[in-house]
Amino acid sequence: MQDEPGTPFFTTCDRCDEPFEPETSYPVVTDRSNGSIELYSFCDEECRSEWKDDA
Ligand SMILES: [Zn+2]
Prior knowledge:
The protein is built from one helix and two strands. It is an alpha+beta fold.
């Protein structure tokens, strides 16, 4: 598979490093608190809210 420029591909959860299943959608968070836009992806909603609590 080839990566297309500008298209974010997520392969693992940003919190627990759980590998993602292909062709499955996962929760994504956009964080622009540092003045630049960062994208984070998570294996499920629970991980996303846990990550927000950690931040
Ligand atoms: Zn996770």
